[in-house]
Amino acid sequence: MTQRLNQLTDRLRREIDDLPAQLQAAAKYIIDHPGDFGLDPIRVTAAKIGVSSNVLVRLAHRMAFEGFDAFRLPFRDALVTDSEDRLGQDWLLAMRQKDAFSAAQADFARNEVNVVTRSLRVLEPAKVRQATNLILGSNTCFVAASRASFALAYYFHYAGRMAHPGLQLVPRHVGSAIDDLHDADDGDCLFAITVQPYSADIIQAMRFVQNKGLKTVLLSDSDLIAPGLSPDVVLPVSTRTLHHFSSFTGAMAVLECLLGHLTNAGGEKARQRAERHLKAREDTGAYWQPSKPPRIRKSPD
């Protein structure tokens, strides 16, 4: 089924330039959003694209399907994400039995699966609940990391501020995190991210805010990263890797869980805030949009 789906999307890519404008818009949406296309009813898909349902039927016929449902079926059948845990890891074994490059790919993939699985297995709900409450209960939650870990902090801040507008990424101006923490008080908290080799700047920032009475949440591969530190919550992650740098896939999985809890706790306000952010970006041209298909004038009855 995966092979059939790949053949179908490859054909859409090859033929998209030769399609009429409305069919082009539909084809691009399907290529970009195969999961949504596999799940949504025809009217929902048409509304998202901005075309009529008949356009999707025409595209289905163009692709040699009897109708929309038959066209959508390969995309629907490919949605096996919710069943991955029941599919086993035979695919890794099969991959490893090919050439040397494929064997290395299988080893890297197995390591990342193990890193994510362990990080999620040791993630205690009680700790996540405590971290969620500390973050949402703060006036400002400073999110601090440095070097490679800064990418994790940036993403967490970017998405998490939809749930808590008080999230603030530090350092803000390529300086020290402490530069942005001088005005923090005990109504604020610090969410720090660092893995071995631990960042001296982050350790100093944690000591600095602890002396000011702030609560601290630490995401790390150890709860004992330096003497004199006693975070209120530690979210442990696995960083085992087969190359020279730490693996961040486990850390990202933990952050995604935390973001899910923050969003759930934020409720309707968080949802509306996310919609406003998305609309503002769309209105200011932050995202590329294809030319809108021409309106088709309906002939009078």
How would you describe what is shown here?
The protein is globular, with a radius of gyration of 24 Å. The protein has 2 domains: 2-81, Arc Repressor Mutant, subunit A, CATH 1.10.10.10; 119-282, Glucose-6-phosphate isomerase like protein, domain 1 (Rossmann fold, 3-Layer(aba) Sandwich), CATH 3.40.50. The protein has 12 helices and 5 strands. Helix 7 runs antiparallel to helix 8, helix 9 runs parallel beside helix 12 (249-283) and helix 10 packs across helix 12. The protein is of the alpha/beta class and 301 residues long. Strands 2-1-3-4-5 form a 5-stranded parallel beta sheet, sandwiched between helices. Strand 1, helix 10 (150-160) and strand 2 (167-170) form a beta-alpha-beta unit.
What is the strand and helix layout of this fold?
Layout: H1 2-15, H2 21-32, H3 34-39, H4 42-49, H5 53-62, H6 68-77, H7 90-96, H8 100-121, H9 125-136, E1 141-144, H10 150-160, E2 167-170, E3 189-193, H11 200-211, E4 215-220, E5 233-236, H12 249-283
Parallel strand pairs: 1-2, 1-3, 3-4, 4-5
Helix pairs in contact: 2-5, 7-8, 8-12, 9-12, 10-12
Protein structure class: alpha/beta
Helix content: 40-55%
Order of helices and strands: HHHHHHHHHEHEEHEEH
Q: How many helix segments?
A: 12
CATH arch. level architecture of the largest domain:
3-Layer(aba) Sandwich
- What would the CATH topology of the largest domain be? Rossmann fold
Low-pLDDT segments: none
Report the sheet with the most strands, covering strand number, pairing sense and barrel closure: 5 strands, parallel
- CATH class type of the largest domain: Alpha Beta
Distance between the termini: 44 Å
Arithmetic mean pLDDT: 90
Based on CA inertia axes, which overall geometry fits? globular
- Per DSSP, what share of the residues sits in E-state strands of 2 or more residues? 5-15%
For the biggest β-sheet, the strand order reads 2-1-3-4-5
CATH superfamily of the largest domain: Glucose-6-phosphate isomerase like protein, domain 1
Q: Rg from C-alpha positions?
A: 24 Å
